[in-house]
């Protein structure tokens, strides 16, 4: 949306006609880069919108009333202090420039509000009657701009003047002469290099309006536009996109746009607001696309990680026969296996040569106990194989659907986005909001925060683990919420583990619960055991007895899982 020098001049003329001699009432700053001044002028109420947002920076009259933050920003408070009750004395647009100056009068002197509408460099600056900056919407220090600082207490310096001449005041012959000296004439670039104060949109309109593609013809077209500017004979137009929505606007009609793709607007402000609404919708859609694509990529990464874990589990399931043979041999040769051994070599009578089979043992168990452990692995592998295969197939299908949707979103046209975003929302719902603080005390100033590690399950749920006794204490009594799931190894010292549930404990998948249990088992005294019992309950059922040591708690209403120890990737 080009807010160029022609549009700035048209806006200034409209504001002079509608607002001068008006009184400032309320002032709001609904967004960090958007201010709205309410003025009473000509027995009517008006809203003056001033935006420094690079996406659609503008100054115009507006009918919109965005919601305001509960606490006004600092710049809004300064505007209220100095402009509420003031009278708008004048509105000026710098000649062929994008700087608007609004002068206000009040009993204690004059105040000046300067709107620099210059794309990403747009800003709003309030000055006192001596030209000293009272505040700026975007504070610009010496490190950002060595030429001028836009900070309270500094004298205001206007933006640096361009090194090219302005075409204002030049005759057609002089304009034509300068154009003929440009190597790439006729082109919009030649116009922009020859003169200051023109934007790309204006240059295209000037070229399209030229009676001939010669320096004299283009000079005649430019001179005509400058004449209308000096006489304030504006004709604001809105330009329509493929979907029939306003995609742009300008202070005049343009020969560079097809007649059916433009229409006259009620005023420059009306044209700017209509184009800004479309631009805002497109920006929101583009932002939604990026956010959804990020969620899809994260979901795809989780699916790939799940496929990797399922692949490992399937390899274990394929060893079912090995587990059965090891168990049978241990039962048959119990007397040959010394207690506390790590490895046993047993004659394998399942082969014709009786070649010894090397069997890994748990030194804490006797031969019979190790045999039973191998039989449990055998039954688990037999029972879990079909389930794991089905889960892997489902994960592969989910991954393919995510990859296809990602590809479609990357290549989608604007009109296709809403439908694709709905598909993405169905496939990867918006994550639940972060839980509010529990009201528990935080570490005092200067006190080190106890160490807590963060994990992410294959289903995308957050898992927290205390690293020390103090970390366990901090996690359980301060960091977690009552509806979070809390886990601890039964009958042994272990890390406290919490699954963040966002007040939806029933929605936590069993796979995430099992992963959290494996984390607890892997960080416990029982981490070398083949199977570990892990209790879990809601954190509200966990209580720390008065006077107990850090990390010591009692709990109730628990259930128990039996898992093999194993951790998850950590992230801080």
Brief digest:
The chain has 572 residues and is of the alpha+beta class. It has helices at 5-19, 74-83, 172-180, 188-194, 200-208, 215-230, 268-317, 320-332, 367-411, 417-427, 469-479, 510-522; strands spanning 23-31, 34-41, 44-51, 58-61, 87-93, 99-106, 109-116, 123-127, 133-136, 237-240, 246-250, 262-264, 343-347, 356-360, 452-456, 462-466, 485-489, 497-499, 532-538, 542-543, 554-555, 559-563. The longest helix has 50 residues, at 268-317.
Keywords:
six-stranded antiparallel β-sheet; 12 helices; disordered C terminus
The profile of the biggest β sheet is:
6 strands, antiparallel
Mean pLDDT: 85
Uncertain segments of ≥5 residues (pLDDT<50)?
433-442, 568-572
Helix content: 25-40%
The general outline is elongated
Radius of gyration: 36 Å
- In percent, how much strand structure appears in the residues? 15-25%
Strand order of the largest sheet: 15-16-18-17-19-22
């Amino acid at each position: 949306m080009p807010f160029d020098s022609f549009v700035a001049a048209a806006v200034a003329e409209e504001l002079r006609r509608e607002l001068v001699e008006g009184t400032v009432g309320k002032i709001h700053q609904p967004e960090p880069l958007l201010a709205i001044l309410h003025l009473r002028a000509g027995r009517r109420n008006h809203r003056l919108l001033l935006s420094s947002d690079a996406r659609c920076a503008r100054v115009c009259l507006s009918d919109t009333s965005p919601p305001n933050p509960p606490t006004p920003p600092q710049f809004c408070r300064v505007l209220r202090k100095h402009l509420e009750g003031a009278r708008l004395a004048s509105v000026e647009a710098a000649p062929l420039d994008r700087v608007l100056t609004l002068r206000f009068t009040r009993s204690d002197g004059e105040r000046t509000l300067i709107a620099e509408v210059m794309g990403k460099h747009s800003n709003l600056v309030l000055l006192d009657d001596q030209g000293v900056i009272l505040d700026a919407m975007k504070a610009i220090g010496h490190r950002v701009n060595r030429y001028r600082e836009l900070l309270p207490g500094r004298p205001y310096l206007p933006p640096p003047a361009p090194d090219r001449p302005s075409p204002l005041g030049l005759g057609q012959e002089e304009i034509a002469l300068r154009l003929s000296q440009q190597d790439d004439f006729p082109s919009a670039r030649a116009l922009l290099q020859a003169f200051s104060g023109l934007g790309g949109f204006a240059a295209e309109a000037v070229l399209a309006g030229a009676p001939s593609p010669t320096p004299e013809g283009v000079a005649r077209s430019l001179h005509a536009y400058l004449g209308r500017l000096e006489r304030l004979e504006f004709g604001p137009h809105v330009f329509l996109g493929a979907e029939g929505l306003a995609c742009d606007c300008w202070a005049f009609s343009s020969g560079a746009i097809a007649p059916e793709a433009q229409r006259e607007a009620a005023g420059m402000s009306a044209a700017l607001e209509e184009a800004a609404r479309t631009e805002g919708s497109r920006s929101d859609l583009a932002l939604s696309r990026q956010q959804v694509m990020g969620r899809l990529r994260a979901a795809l990464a989780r699916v790939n990680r799940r496929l990797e874990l399922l692949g490992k589990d399937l390899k274990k399931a394929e060893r079912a026969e090995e587990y059965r043979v090891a168990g049978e041999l241990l039962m048959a040769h119990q007397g040959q296996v010394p207690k506390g051994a790590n490895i046993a070599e047993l004659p394998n009578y399942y082969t014709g040569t009786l070649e010894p089979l090397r069997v890994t043992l748990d030194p804490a168990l006797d031969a019979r106990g190790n045999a039973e452990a191998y039989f449990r692995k055998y039954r688990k592998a037999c029972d879990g194989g079909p389930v794991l295969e089905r889960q892997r197939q489902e994960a592969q299908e989910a991954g393919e659907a995510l990859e296809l949707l990602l590809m479609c979103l990357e290549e989608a046209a604007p009109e296709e986005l809403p439908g694709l975003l709905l598909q993405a929302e169905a496939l990867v719902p918006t994550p639940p909001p972060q839980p509010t603080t529990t009201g528990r005390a935080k570490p005092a100033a200067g006190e080190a925060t106890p160490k807590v590690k963060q994990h992410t399950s294959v289903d995308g749920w957050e898992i927290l683990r205390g690293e020390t006794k103090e970390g366990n204490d901090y996690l359980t009594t301060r960091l977690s919420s009552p509806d979070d799931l809390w886990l601890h190894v039964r009958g042994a010292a272990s890390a406290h583990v919490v699954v963040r549930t966002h007040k939806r404990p029933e929605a936590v998948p069993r796979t995430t619960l099992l992963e959290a249990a494996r984390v607890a088992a892997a960080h416990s005294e029982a981490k070398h055991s083949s199977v570990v019992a892990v209790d879990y309950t809601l954190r509200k059922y966990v209580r720390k007895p008065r006077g107990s040591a850090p990390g010591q708690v009692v709990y109730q209403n628990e259930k128990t899982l039996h898992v093999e120890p194993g951790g998850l990737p950590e992230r801080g």
